[in-house]
Design a protein that fits this description.
This protein is α/β, with parallel strands linked by helices. The protein has 2 domains: 2-222, 3-Layer(aba) Sandwich (Rossmann fold), CATH 3.40.50; 227-293, 2-Layer Sandwich (Alpha-Beta Plaits), CATH 3.30.70.100. It has 11 helices and 13 strands. The protein has helices at 42-49, 72-76, 93-103, 108-121, 137-147, 167-182, 194-200, 218-223, 243-248, 273-283, 296-304; strands spanning 2-13, 16-27, 31-35, 57-62, 78-81, 155-159, 186-191, 203-208, 211-216, 228-235, 252-258, 261-267, 286-292. A 6-stranded mixed β-sheet has the order 5-6-7-3-8-9, with helices on both faces. Helix 3 packs across helix 4 (108-121) and helix 5 runs parallel beside helix 6 (167-182). It binds adenosine-5'-triphosphate (ATP). Residues 13, 16, 18, 36, 38-44, 83, 192 line the site of adenosine-5'-triphosphate. The site of adenosine-5'-triphosphate has 13 residues, from strand 2 and helix 1. InterPro entries: AAA+_ATPase (IPR003593), ABC_transporter-like_ATP-bd (IPR003439), ABC_transporter-like_CS (IPR017871), P-loop_NTPase (IPR027417). Keywords: ATP-binding, Nucleotide-binding. Pfam families: ABC_tran (PF00005).
Length: 314
């Protein structure tokens, strides 16, 4: 069954186009990894898909309904973990969950049971009486996720839930997402960490500048760049290297400069390493060279000529 679909959706913020004719189908049981750099349009996509923001063109369908997709009944079938952590700091963890469960219409014994289950599910079973002010960023985030789960949504949307949290909580969240899927939840997960997508997504959707530029399973996407080789050269003075001249070397497909690192994508078997290095060394000192196996980052790099994340960005 199609859980959600967008057809030709266009969303503008004054003259800026945030969603540029977006088509997306999400099937029951999928974990969609929505991958894109800052400003790609991921949050805007979520906001239009959930009816939080109006859009200029196109159609959204939720749970097979296109006439009134944002009905209360449909909204109650969804859970949203927003980019900003939204928990009440003056309430205990358990009271937070009771509040959100109440918003979704849960009552009495059922509400109590679901609250305890949600706490357990995110690994906060023994922290219910604690105030979130005493929590680490990762624990707060897990509480925030639990708040979106008490009503057992069929479709859970998570907007960059692991930004700025410790690796342990991050792994916990990724495991939680996988468990939710096993329990029948469909998930849309946005991130700019390709490792996360590689770990959990059943399908990857890559966005840039308001457009979906590629989709497929991790394996399918990586196959598209397997005819390419990637080399990273760390240099002392990257700015003095003439990128245009590098791009003219036979076999070179793309050259990207990021901090003090030059990434060069070439066709497999180009045998152009010597020429590349000779040219680079004419302009700067070389500190190190590495060749990597292709990954999702390379798919993005090949498609857009940009890194998913800037060097040094969290
Ligand atoms: N409320 C707003 N008013 C004006 N422009 C906006 C607004 N929200 C988003 N935009 C613009 O729309 C584009 C898409 O932004 P969006 O937040 O959807 O991207 P994103 O992929 O979620 O980025 P991030 O990873 O930083 O959250 C950006 O150019 C952004 O500046």
């Amino acid at each position: 069954m199609t859980i959600a679909s967008m057809q030709g959706v266009v969303k503008r913020y004054s003259s800026d186009i945030a969603l540029d004719y977006v088509d997306l189908d999400i099937q029951e049981g999928e974990i969609i990894g929505l991958l894109g750099p800052n400003g790609a349009g991921k949050t805007t996509l979520i906001q239009t898909l959930t009816g939080m923001t109006p859009f200029e063109r196109g159609k959204v369908e939720l749970f097979g309904q296109s006439k009134n997709p944002f009905s209360i009944q449909n909204k109650e079938r969804m859970g949203l973990v927003t980019q900003e952590i939204t928990v009440f700091e003056e309430l205990t963890a358990r009271e937070n969950l009771h509040f959100f469960a109440g918003v979704y219409g849960l009552k009495g014994e059922e509400k109590k049971r679901r609250v305890e289950e949600a706490l357990e599910f995110v690994g906060l079973g023994d922290k219910g009486a604690k105030m979130p002010t005493k929590f680490s960023g990762g624990m707060k985030r897990r509480l925030n996720i639990a708040c979106a789960l008490t009503h057992q949504p069929r479709f859970l949307i998570m907007d960059e839930p692991t930004v700025g949290i410790d690796p342990q909580s991050r792994n916990y969240i990724l495991e939680t997402v996988k468990k939710l899927r096993e329990n029948g939840t469909t998930i849309l997960y946005t991130t700019h960490y390709m490792e996360e997508v590689q770990a959990i997504a059943t399908r990857v959707v890559i966005m840039d500048q308001g457009q979906i530029i590629k989709e497929g399973t991790v394996e399918e996407l990586i196959k598209t760049v397997q005819h390419e080789e990637k080399m990273k050269i760390d240099v002392t003075d990257a700015d003095s290297v003439p990128i245009n001249d590098l791009e003219k070397i036979a076999g070179v497909k793309k050259v990207v400069l990021s901090g003090s690192q030059i990434t060069i994508i070439s066709a497999v078997g180009s045998g152009n390493l010597d020429r590349i290095l000779t040219l680079v060394k004419e302009y700067t000192g070389v500190l190190g060279i590495q060749a990597d196996k292709p990954n999702l980052e390379d798919v993005f790099l090949t498609l857009t000529g940009k890194q998913l994340r800037d060097k040094g960005e969290e």
